[in-house]
Amino acid sequence: MKGLIAILIVALIAIIVVQIGRLSEIAAKIRGEEEVETRNNNRTAVYMLLFLIGFLGFCVISAWVYKDRMFGYGPLKAASEHGSQLDLIFNITLVWTGIVFVITHVFLFWFSFKYREDKKRKAYFFPHSTKLEIIWTVIPTFVLIFLVVKGLRIWNDVMFDVDPNDDYIEIEATGYQFAWDLRYPGPDGKLGTRDYKLIDLGSNPLGQDWSDPKNIDDFQPTEIVLPKGKKVRVRITSKDVLHNFYLPHFRVKMDAVPGLPTYFIFTPIKTTDEFKQVIRDYPDWQKLSDPDDPESPMRWEEFNYELACAELCGSGHYSMRRLVKIVEPDEYEEWLLSQQSYYMANIRNTDNDPFKGKLLDIEILERDRELTSEFNSAMEAEGESIIKLKNVFFETGSAKLTDDSKHELNKLATLLSSKKSTLKAELGGHTDNTGDPQSNMNLSEQRAAAVQQYLFMRGIGADNISTRGYGATQPTDTNDTQEGRQNNRRTELKIISK
At 185, which CATH number? Predict the structure, then answer.
């Protein structure tokens, strides 16, 4: 019924328009076609002037009303080192094109008014003016030369590739319908090699070559986090169609092209929190984020930098938006430490692991970091504290340390050396309940002594560390499962005096 009514309304409007046209024809015949034509010309000329005034007024008023939402104006100044230069050249371009825009529109509509049809006016023949042509050729030429040269200088700042010796961060973004795969380098600061032939959506979505050691510590976060004041190189590519990696607040964008890596370089100069403090003073950002909910936060409180795809890449184009966080360098380092490499989480010790059975540098680094954190916490805690030496292992049924244990013990010796003057600690050996209790007790004492002896060779004296075997008397887990028994077989360091 609604559709039928809509069709009837359209049909009635069409009939009315036709009838108005017929009435106009009849009226023209009655009054005389020349008189009607003159009157229509005069009326149209006046309408053109009124439109000119309204149109230019609308342009000025709308620019003023929305100035706080336009990049480069009000609070939305560029948040990157080179961004202010891009805003400057944009503003220069806007001034010159704005002048031309106003002049040409004034002339256009004024000419329509002044030179409307008038049978009493005699036309003036004006075929050529060399002076006028020189003016409108030379001025735009110099303006364009200035804009091109200035633009090239800024473009080179963004696209001039970094020196390998520079202090910078390189990250990678791979677009696909309809999201981004992000990749960061680990502690080595280098992204590993890729091969599209190795792509497996289940286990290797980016086609990383696991035989390349640089890939071992690379991680794939769900968000973009970058430090303030650090140069960033973004490596960009695509798996399927054209996408565009666009960071509007930093004035950088670049196409993501399948099979053709692209990049850009920028340096963030404002953290997300600093940008919030800038925009909070503007009325437009002091409105509720949800006008229908009086409890909702202000717009400035919910602000975030964002990554957008600036290429219409399909029906799910909108879902390629990602939040971007710019933080202080210390916070960025903490965030880095919280990330786990894709290799360690998904490939390590699987059939796809080319380093299966080998202790890797990244594992040693992670062990050192964990032990340092636990040691510092123990030293700050009141009373006695216990540190479980998670990576100290012995050969089966023996007190002989494995080679993998020595990395953690070397780190422990370094930590203990800094506290030798006041430190008193006890090394405790523990076993599961398998076998004879007395044999377990003896084995635990021997293992504690073996660790003590290794630390002695690293400069830690007997007056700092004593030993004790506990056998199976202090389990921390059940002895009914293999995993539980493994957890009970352990070596612990008890900090007694700090």
Answer: 2.60.40.420
